[in-house]
User: Fold this.
Amino acid sequence: MVRGAVALAGALAEADADTLPFEILALDERSGDNTLSHLSVLHGQIPQLRIFQDIAPGQAIRRAVEVARGACWVVLDRPVELSLVEWAASMVTCERLAAIVPGEVLAVDAEVGRQALRSLRGGLVSAQRAVERAVRERGQRPAWSPAPDRGIAERAMLFMRRHMVGLLDRPLKA
Assistant:
């Protein structure tokens, strides 16, 4: 994800930053890896990077809703192809309310995101479903793109995440 944040920041910086302001929120749900130390180093190189740590499991998206300032939000929970992020963000900046790549990327208009995600407990797939419902309630459909062709094991996991959201996408109750 660190490399992805750098690549995304580079791609956005190539666009005119004055006409397309952006921020990158890195939200850590008490992970045990060294991602935060890498992000701390990058913070000096990427002024748009804001880091939030020690977030309770299943609360990162809710926290992002509280602190995000942009008009278009892009939600990822793991490294993805930059072209998917670019496609999703372009759909929302071109007047679509949301764009979804199942299990990979969610881009959403900030107003819709606040409405749909402010009380969300869960991860990316739960967020995708909540946003899809909110967009449909407004009489529209989100832009949708199939996920890149993956191996059978990864496709099976995406199927399970989509159909068993309650078990795999939400934190376990203590």
